[in-house]
Amino acid sequence: MNNEKIVLITGANSGIGKAAAFKFAKEGCTVIMACRNLEISKEVQSDIKQTTNNDQVDLIKLDVSSFDSIREFCREFKNRYEKLDVLIHNAAYANHGEKYRLSANQIELTFATNVIGPYLMTMLLVDHLKKSEDARILHASSNIVKHYFDPKKDLDVSNLRGERKDDKKFSVYTMYRDSKVALVLLTFKLAEVLQENGIKVNAIQINGAKMSKETLMKFEPGWRMIARIQNLFFPPPEKFAECYFEICMSDHFKTTTGKLINDKNQIMEPTVTKPNYKMQIKQFTGSDLYPAYLENRDNWDKVWNLCRELTQ
Ligand SMILES: NC(=O)c1ccc[n+]([C@@H]2O[C@H](COP(=O)([O-])OP(=O)(O)OC[C@H]3O[C@@H](n4cnc5c(N)ncnc54)[C@H](OP(=O)(O)O)[C@@H]3O)[C@@H](O)[C@H]2O)c1
Fold first, then answer.
1. Which SUPFAM superfamilies is this protein grouped with (predicted)?
2. Which of 123, 164, 199, 263 registers the highest number of CB atoms within 10 A of its CB?
3. Which numbered atom of ligand 1 lies nearest the CA of 65?
């Protein structure tokens, strides 16, 4: 029954996270919005409560790029709730065009927000997830992983601690791409590690959802213009909120773990085939294939070890 489900969504004040908070609340779940800007998020929270007629919509402050904030968040969450059924790592840093930035813990900000923070948060919440009869974790990845169809690509983790912070060639786009690859690798590894606890871990490949004005303003002007054009073709965030709900709540995905799932709710498969023109187009319209690089256990371990090392 949905009204017994406790659902935690990071970055629930904007875009897909906000649409998902509406969807889960509308379906009767208890929703915890984990957001860094309480002022903006309070308005969203009260809007969701009013629109859905569901009072069980909570808001707890979280900056997922900061270990202190994650620890404080998890303490507060555990004080308020006995268990956790659904954990959706939706928040992400993608300020294309920005310079190299370090998090409070001296980790490159894209990786700190999109990979290392979510890993730490999951680890701190495992005991609460174990108390659920049907615990599910979902990672929001992207079709940007398509770049790894190129067999020459390999995850570069040598510039995550400010080693080359003044490198003029630094690009948030590249870091973002690699963080989303790392997130899928982490999904597959975590699914294996948490299997004995009955916790399921999957990732969704998002092809593109309409971005809000606020999100567009985070990009540098050149990137903003590209994103505005893309926005003309992208579906609304509600489309992916429906996917989040299906993957995290339906009987269909009850036993599914360690999978990358597309926007048609299909389980994707790895391939070594170099993508032809048709496959490239399909990456935008909902492919069911992903690069074999993501299936390689050495790559899983590379990300796993990185997460452990950086959170020690
Ligand atoms: N939209 C697309 O085309 C697209 C395509 C592929 C993948 N995705 C993925 O889908 C997910 C949702 O994207 P979206 O389009 O809905 O983006 P969005 O509207 O910009 O939402 C991102 C959310 O993440 C939050 N966030 C960023 N840094 C944070 C931090 N350090 N701590 C806590 N929250 C933080 C933002 O909070 P603030 O409001 O405070 O900044 C915002 O709520 C992301 O993982 C994104 O990478 C999106």
1. NAD(P)-binding Rossmann-fold domains
2. 199
3. 31
